[in-house]
Each structure stands twice: as structure tokens, then as C-alpha cells.
Specification:
The complex is a heterodimer of chains A (about 160) and B (about 350). Chain A is α+β, with helices and mostly antiparallel strands and about 160 residues long. Chain A contains five helices and five strands; from the N terminus they run E-E-H-E-E-E-H-H-H-H. Chain A folds into two domains: about 80 residues, Roll (Ubiquitin-like (UB roll)), CATH 3.10.20.30; about 80 residues, [2Fe-2S]-binding domain (DNA polymerase, domain 1, Orthogonal Bundle), CATH 1.10.150.120. Chain A has a five-stranded mixed β-sheet, covered by helices on one side. Chain A is globular. Among the domains of chain B are: about 50 residues, Uridine Diphospho-n-acetylenolpyruvylglucosamine Reductase, domain 2 (2-Layer Sandwich); about 100 residues, 2-Layer Sandwich (Enolase-like, domain 1), CATH 3.30.390.50. Chain B has 13 helices and twelve strands. In chain B, the strands form three sheets. Chain B has a five-stranded antiparallel β-sheet with strand order 4-5-8-6-7. Chain B has a four-stranded antiparallel β-sheet with strand order 9-10-11-12. In chain B, helix 11 runs antiparallel to helix 12. Classes of the chains: A alpha+beta (about 160), B alpha+beta (about 350).
């Protein structure tokens, strides 16, 4: 069975011929499109390392069939910086030691981008922790992660007000 | 994962025809089905992708004041719909207490109803499981079973249904609209899931090809909006299935309970509507004695299926707690930790 799908990945239109409908979005990104920033942790939707944005929403890419995403707009960790300028969340994760080994970090950052755009957490650390509970960090960098998200949200709020002015 | 044919029909009629074939399964978000397929627990020959079917992703207000929720509405979108959350707060709270933000963004409300049990022996293909292989036996009996059923179980199966969302739906008389080979029909959510009996592999009242197209909440369910809560006790603060949960809703007038609704999660193979407890509460004052009496009535028929006698007392305490919260009033804002006993809700907990 051959199935052709069209996706926009980090702003670039891609057409992919799928020879097997079993391919998940995660495996498509890593094995076919060479975008290995998105990590495979548990591959069962439990750890969040594979988090990407699909049509602006954070999801677990290990639990989505690529075939079902024909026409979707995908954003991965490779697409969040502007050239050499880090995304505010990337900068804040560095500033606040929001990681140790770094394996979960792309998923943490994509999840945090989704969290901020959902607008449900505000500046409440407890709401941020709850909103990030789908991303596990075995190094236990949770305190730094929460601080990084709080700071990035302040940075983005200021930038948003500047853009609006 | 086994090989399968992938189909994406353009209409509901085509989807039903495709899914009526032996070995076919519907695919919505796939957050549970793909997990089961990766573990070899589910092995469909054909996946019928329904995510592009038109018209199933809307939340509509009905003339009777109720609401109709298309089966493809995502869990997060329903929970964060301001009008829905204000009208059916316990449903929104249950949705937000389930899974993670990523899964709630993907998972559909129709799929939530049809998720499979999280019994570890069902998931482990090396274990005996009557639900996975009829007649194979049940390794959960005599195994790790402290989280298993205390109501409605049989010698063949002691698994529980894991949904949070279904619990307040059952309490509020929600109805599932089904399209199938014989046309359209309706099933109460409280009656959608079957108790195991001698055939635990038959989990729902659905027949081959049946597609849930919508859920409906009746207008009178909105009368509980000011006193409705969901409480969920789990083994960690977030992102875990319920050990026991309860949806409690009250209609109070002049300090008297005019009508009560109560359902439990994590205790049986279906969301467990506790009608005897509702009868106990009607006409009584919303106080500790009433709530304790209701809790005892709700669990009168409970019996442990293994190392889980503690869940009977736990369920009674969760019920009393949820009713206390409901009586204190629905919070203006969703708690930081939805449905958690650790959430700080002013005035609700003593």
C-alpha cells in the first residue's frame, strides 16, 4: 500500500510517500525527514519527549499515525528559533538550568510553547506544573523548568505588548 | 504493530460500511488504540479513520437548554469551552483531571467513551485475560489487583473502566447518539458499558459498524451547575488514572437537597451511577450525616475482588468529600489541580 501525504513542517511544504500506514508522526520526523530533535522516549504517550505542535496544538507524536495527518501544519524544536536567535523558552531553559541530560528538553520546550498559547496557566506555578505533567524529566529539573516557563511567559507578554503598540 | 489497511472514508455511511467488515476498527485520535496496537493487544486488519468526517466537531446548544457535543470534539476544547464549563462544571473538571494536556488536545470525546481498561493483565499479552482472549482465564485474580473493581465484577473479569469524563456524564443522564447499519439510535452513557458477567470481551452495547456521532446532555442537567464537583483520588498528583473518583451534583433550595446526582469512577467496568445514594440524599440537609449515609448506600453491594477492600472505605470517603465540595458550591475558577483533593478551594474543605 502506498499513500502520499502533504505536510507543512517548520514552514516548509513536504510531500511524503508512505509505504506503510503504521508510520507514526514521530518516526516520520526522525527516520524519514531527518528531524531528530524530537525524541523517542517511551513511544507510548507516557513521557512527553516526542511532543510537537500539530496545527498549533501540543500532542504526543508517537501516538499519531502520519497517514491521518495529511494537510497538517507541524512545528518541531528545529523550527522554533529564528536563525541564531533562540526562542524565549530556549533561552529561559538555559538561564534557569531547566535540564541536565537534555533528552526530554525538546519535548518540554514544545509542550511549554503549547501551554503558553493555551493561556490557561497564567503566572501560577501550580497551574504550570499541572499543565506540564505530561512531560517527565528523569534528571528532576522540574524547578528550573517551571522558573523558565514563568520567565519566558513574561518575556513573551512584554514582546506581545510591544508588537501591539 | 501488525500490518493493517488504512481507510479514510468521506461520509458517515461509507465509514459504517467499512467498519462493519470483520477485523475493522475505527480510528479517531488513536491515543488509546495506537498504544494497544503497539503492545499487540489490539490487532485490527483495517483502520477506518473517522477524524475527517464532516460535522462531528461542533458543540451545539439545544432548544431545551441542553448541549450536543460532536463525537470528534477534542477533550481539551470541550473542557475549555467557557459556556460548557459554566453549565456543566463537573464534566469540565473531570475532563481536565484526565491524562495530560497533550493527550487531551488530541483525544476525542467519542473515543474517550470507548477507551479500554488499564488492567495490567489485559495489556500484557503474556498474561491470561478473558477480555483479550475469551476463555483464557484471568491472571488479575490472585495477581496485583489492589486497583481493580469492587462493584459489578465477575469471576471472569475484575477490570475497571478508566474514564473520568464518563463519570459525570453518567450522573447527568448523558446520552450517546449512535449511527449504525440499522440507522440512528440512542444509548444512555450509564448503560453503554456492559458489566463483565461471563463475557468480558463484550464491553459495550455497540454492534459491529456502530459509530458514536455525538453526546447529548439534557437541559435539566444544567440545574446542578452551582453545586457540581468531580473528585479523583490517584496515586500521584497528576497524570494518573483514578483509584476511586466521584461526580457529585446537588440541587439545593432553602437548605434542603431537592435532587442529588452521584456516580463513581475506578470501581467497576462502567461508570457507576449510585441511584440508592441519590434517593438517600433527596429531602435531607446537606450535612455530614447525610453524606455519610449516602456513601454507605452507594457501596452497600461492594465487595473486594482481591487486595482492594480498602477501596470500599476509600470510595465512601471520596463520596462524602465530593458531596461536601458540591454543597459548598462550584468554584468560580477551575482549581489549579482539577479534581484533586490537594487543590485549595476556599471554604470547600475542612
Amino acid at each position: 500500500m502506498s499513500l502520499s501525504i502533504s505536510l507543512t513542517v517548520n514552514g516548509t511544504a513536504r510531500t511524503v510517500a508512505l509505504d506503510d500506514p503504521r508510520v507514526t508522526l514521530l518516526d516520520l520526523l526522525r527516520e524519514r525527514l531527518d528531524l531528530v530533535g524530537t525524541k523517542k522516549g517511551c513511544d507510548r504517550g507516557q513521557c512527553g519527549a516526542c511532543t510537537v505542535l500539530v496545527d498549533g496544538r501540543r500532542i504526543n507524536s508517537c501516538l499519531m499515525l502520519a497517514a491521518s495527518l495529511d494537510g497538517a501544519d507541524i512545528l518541531t524544536i528545529e523550527g522554533v528559533a529564528r536563525g541564531d536567535v533562540l526562542h524565549p523558552l530556549q533561552a529561559a531553559f538555559i538561564a534557569h538550568d531547566g535540564f541536565q541530560c537534555g533528552f526530554c528538553t525538546p519535548g518540554q520546550i514544545m509542550s511549554a510553547i503549547g501551554l503558553i498559547s493555551e493561556g490557561q496557566a497564567g503566572d501560577d506555578p501550580e497551574r504550570i506544573r499541572e499543565g506540564m505533567s505530561g512531560n517527565l524529566c528523569r534528571c528532576g529539573a522540574y524547578i528550573g523548568i517551571t522558573e523558565a516557563i514563568l520567565e519566558a511567559q513574561r518575556t513573551l507578554d512584554k514582546a506581545g505588548r510591544r508588537d501591539a503598540a | 504493530m501488525n500490518r493493517f489497511d488504512y481507510l479514510r472514508p468521506a461520509s458517515i455511511a461509507d465509514a459504517i460500511a467499512a467498519a462493519a467488515a470483520p477485523g475493522a476498527a475505527y480510528l479517531a485520535a488513536g491515543t488509546n488504540l495506537l498504544d494497544l496496537m503497539k503492545g499487540g493487544v489490539s490487532r485490527p486488519d483495517i483502520l477506518v479513520d473517522v477524524t475527517r468526517l464532516p460535522g462531528l466537531d461542533r458543540i451545539e446548544r439545544l432548544p431545551d437548554g441542553g448541549v450536543r457535543i460532536g463525537a470528534l470534539v477534542r477533550n481539551a476544547d470541550l473542557a475549555h469551552d467557557p459556556d460548557f464549563a459554566r453549565t456543566y462544571p463537573a464534566v469540565a473538571e473531570a475532563l481536565l483531571s484526565g491524562a495530560s494536556a497533550q493527550l487531551r488536545n488530541a483525544a476525542t470525546v467519542g473515543g474517550n467513551l470507548l477507551q479500554r481498561t488499564r488492567c495490567g493483565y489485559f495489556y500484557d499479552v503474556a498474561s491470561a485475560c478473558n477480555k483479550r482472549v475469551p476463555g483464557a482465564g484471568c491472571d488479575a485474580r490472585g495477581g496485583e489487583n489492589r486497583l481493580h473493581a469492587i462493584l459489578g465484577w465477575s469471576d471472569a473479569c475484575i477490570a475497571t473502566h478508566p474514564s473520568d469524563f464518563c463519570v459525570p456524564l453518567a450522573a447527568l443522564d448523558a446520552v450517546a447518539e449512535i449511527e449504525g447499519r440499522g440507522g440512528r439510535r440512542e444509548i444512555a452513557v450509564a448503560a453503554l458499558h456492559r458489566l463483565p458477567g461471563n463475557a468480558p470481551e463484550q464491553e459495550t452495547a455497540l454492534e459491529r459498524g456502530d459509530l458514536i456521532v455525538a453526546l447529548r446532555l439534557p437541559g435539566d442537567a444544567a440545574q446542578f451547575a452551582r453545586h457540581a464537583r468531580y473528585l479523583k483520588v490517584r496515586e500521584r498528583t497528576s497524570y494518573a488514572f483514578a483509584v476511586v473518583s466521584a461526580a457529585a451534583a446537588l440541587r439545593l433550595e432553602h437548605g434542603v437537597i431537592q435532587e442529588a446526582r452521584l456516580a463513581l469512577g475506578g470501581v467497576a467496568a462502567r461508570p457507576w451511577r449510585a441511584r440508592p445514594a441519590e434517593a438517600v440524599l433527596k429531602g435531607r440537609a446537606p450535612d455530614t450525616a447525610s453524606f455519610r449515609a449516602a456513601a454507605e448506600a452507594a457501596l452497600a453491594d461492594a465487595r473486594p475482588s482481591g487486595d482492594n477492600a480498602f477501596k470500599i472505605e476509600l470510595a465512601q470517603r471520596v463520596i462524602a468529600h465530593a458531596l461536601t465540595w458540591a454543597a459548598a458550591g462550584t468554584p468560580e475558577q477551575m482549581p489549579a489541580l482539577p479534581a484533586s483533593p490537594f487543590a485549595s478551594v476556599p471554604g470547600a474543605l475542612s
